[in-house]
Design goal:
Elements (H helix, E strand, L loop, with lengths): L1 H19 L5 H13 L6 H23 L8 H19 L11 H22 L3 H8 L5 H14 L19 H5 L4 H14 L7 H31 L5 H17 L2 H6 L3 H18 L5 H18 L4 H14 L6 H20 L20 H16 L8 H28 L5 H16 L16 H22 L11 H6 L7 H13 L6 E5 L4 H14 L3 H12 L8 H10 L3 E6 L35 H11 L4 E5 L6
Parallel strand pairs: 1-2, 2-3
Keywords: Membrane, Transmembrane, Transmembrane helix
């Protein structure tokens, strides 16, 4: 009895002391280790690690509903104490004592090796860059700015934005309030929670610090996505495969994750899709080969469904379909726990879809976006290989695991076909959400490649492992080389793989735009009572800097109009009269940042035929000859509206 009292006391003492001495980041680590120690349905180290993190993602999404309304909101002591207390309570109720895996299997070594390579490739392009360089990678999609807005808003409000409908208007313009407030927020909420522990703080930091935390969390999420893909492929391969068979297959999956289309989800700055698709991969694995403990399997499936719903409910039809297949296969309706899990899961599962009913329309599915176009031939190759892996193995579709795998692959393909057909019938082609659903088919196909391991030579025990492994890798090496050198949508162009370009430092995004945004935010952390507009250099750089500065300065409510206005010169061009009209309409003072005397974007006539922005092909001079330069336009407006316009002659960080 005394030991349990001590355990419950420590559940609160540890978060309190760690918070007071500034090392609260140890609490999430202890929570993950605690969940791992109570797992019984998964035996290996990576089995427990992946399942623990995946279950915690769903659990934190649900707990966020409580954290949003209790008095302490996102205070790390309250959240940490609650989580550790819950773990102690589970141990007491089940009679389980914390134990961690003691065996390190050779299959774990193979997974660790390939995952280690993915981690090195993931972090290498970022650790060698400053914050501007890191943030600049995610700028071209420009969606990352609004993901930061949601992350920062959750931290400021102390909970899910949709639970504070009367308080979100100060963060964004009225026309975006409902759309952003109700947007799927699982990843953003989890990042806001982790931010509190990382900084040992009970409130938001300045905008530059907050976006730095978000960038590193986004990078860590991609690393976990890679682990989820590799682990699921290994699980689908089954326990009978040897390390020699496993290494080349995991090498192929890892190469495709980093050098193929999946990395575009990362560099385009889609944190919630990345988290949602990682959970879909894991769900695919435990539906094909369920956990050995029935109760843990039920809990895991329920929490994965909730996590997918809170993060990216576009994938919920897929997740529900394969979960329903598993439930039918094991006759879950005969188990009272199935009904209990369904009852407890129904409410949280419906939160995000219900909040976004206004967007659940055919029109929404035809909206454009910034997702990269997937490599169609590469997707076809993966699909064909996945089909071979499923049907060509011993017993073929007579194997329950392969039947489940086939259902998963067929469901993902069906979703792609249905949406693609609808978009073609409506638009005459496919866009945005088709690429998103193709991502789903891609990851299901990739993890299904685990079945290829059983088709490779097993090797002989008396032969050296390295020699056998090299022989296995040689079988799949051409595919690895292809995706490494020519992956991505332009697969016929050598060295155009997005991952390769990122790893080699060729892909930079807009680091100068990021540095301008950081400069402007550091000069005026709270925006200084104005909307800050970058006119220092090229149009795209100015565009990115203006929108990101407005979010970091918590000023997106006024920055959104300028974000839209900055983008128009790509097609139509702006005159000084248009510029002046923006100044007159602005409800707050306009602060214009200038630097380069040659920087220009204005035209005399909107019909100017040559005005098409191309990245840095003409330096900063994009305006029409005879039109005002940026400095001339800024000074003209300052003279005409001295109380409304301020001009700042700043020196960009790259000068």
């Amino acid at each position: 009895m005394l030991s349990w009292v001590g355990a419950f006391a420590l559940a609160w003492v540890i978060p309190l002391v760690s918070y007071l001495i500034g090392v609260a980041f140890v609490v999430p680590v202890l929570v993950v280790v605690g969940v791992m120690s109570l797992q019984r349905g998964a035996s290996g180290f990576f089995d427990r690690l992946v399942m623990s993190i995946a279950q915690l993602i769903g659990a934190v999404c649900v707990a966020g509903l409580l954290f949003s309304v209790w008095p302490w909101h996102l205070h790390p002591v309250a959240m940490g104490g609650f989580a550790l207390t819950l773990l102690v309570a589970i141990a007491a109720a089940t009679g389980r004592r914390p134990t961690l895996p003691r065996r390190w299997r050779s299959r774990d070594s193979v997974l660790a090796l390939v995952f280690g390579v993915v981690v090195v490739l993931t972090y290498e392009p970022f650790v060698i860059r400053d914050l501007g360089g890191r943030l600049g990678v995610f700028m071209p999609g420009e969606d990352f700015s609004r993901h930061y807005l949601i992350f920062d808003m959750i931290g400021a409000l102390g909970g899910y934005a949709f639970m504070f409908p009367n308080d979100t208007a100060r963060f964004m313009p009225d026309q975006l309030d409902v759309g952003i407030r109700n947007y799927p927020q699982g990843a953003h909420f989890i990042y806001a929670v982790l931010d509190r522990f990382i900084r040992s703080a009970d409130h938001n930091a300045d905008g530059v610090t907050m976006i730095n935390v978000l960038v590193w969390l986004h990078i860590a999420m991609f690393a976990f996505f890679g682990l989820a893909m590799l682990w699921t492929a290994r699980r689908i391969a089954g326990a009978g495969v040897s390390p020699v068979q496993l290494l080349p297959v995991l090498g192929l999956v890892g190469a495709w994750v980093y050098f193929g289309d999946p990395i575009t989800i990362f560099v385009r700055g889609f944190p919630n899709q990345l988290m949602g698709i990682a959970l879909c991969a894991i769900l695919t694995g435990i539906v094909a080969r369920p956990l050995t403990h029935r109760v843990e399997q039920i809990v895991a499936v329920a929490l994965l469904l909730v996590g997918i719903s809170f993060n990216y409910h576009l994938y919920l039809p897929y997740a529900l379909t394969i979960a329903a297949f598993w439930a039918w296969r094991v006759k879950l309706w005969r188990n009272p726990l199935g009904y209990l899990a369904a009852a407890l899961m129904a409410g949280p599962l419906a939160v995000t879809p219900f909040l976004n009913l206004y967007a659940t329309t055919g029109y929404q599915l035809t909206r454009p976006g910034t997702a990269e176009v997937n490599d169609r031939p590469a997707a076809f190759v993966i699909f064909v290989l996945a089909v071979i892996a499923i049907v060509a193995g011993r017993r073929g579709l007579r194997s329950p695991a392969r039947r489940a795998n086939a259902i998963a692959l067929g469901t993902a393909l069906g979703i792609v076909v249905v949406l693609g057909t609808y978009q073609i019938a409506t638009l005459g082609g496919v866009i945005y959400y088709f690429e998103k659903t193709l991502h789903l088919l891609l990851i299901v196909g990739l993890v299904s490649l685990g079945g290829l391991a059983r088709l490779l030579p097993r090797g002989k025990p008396q032969h050296p492992f390295l020699r056998q492994a090299v022989a296995g890798v040689a079988v799949i090496l051409p595919l690895i080389m292809f995706i490494g050198v020519a992956g991505g949508k332009h697969h016929t162009i050598k060295f155009h793989s997005p991952g390769l370009r990122l790893a080699l430092g060729w892909y930079k995004g807009s680091p100068d735009g990021a540095r301008d945004a950081i400069l402007m935010t550091r000069m005026y952390p709270d925006a200084g009572g104005a909307i800050n507009v970058d006119l220092m250099s090229t149009p795209f750089r100015n565009w990115y800097a203006t929108v990101y500065a407005s979010t970091m300065q918590r000023n997106y409510r006024y920055g959104h109009d300028w974000y839209l206005w900055h983008g128009v010169p790509q097609t139509d061009g702006w005159t000084i009269e248009d510029f002046e009209d923006m100044v007159k309409k602005s409800p707050v003072k306009v602060r214009l940042y200038v630097f380069d005397p040659a920087a220009s974007f204005l035209v005399i006539h909107k019909e100017h035929p040559e005005l098409r922005i191309q990245p840095d092909v003409r330096g900063p001079s994009y305006g029409e000859a005879g039109a005002m330069t940026n400095i001339e336009a800024a000074e003209f407006l300052k003279k005409k509206y001295p109380d409304k316009v301020e001009v700042v002659y700043a020196v960009p960080p790259d000068r």
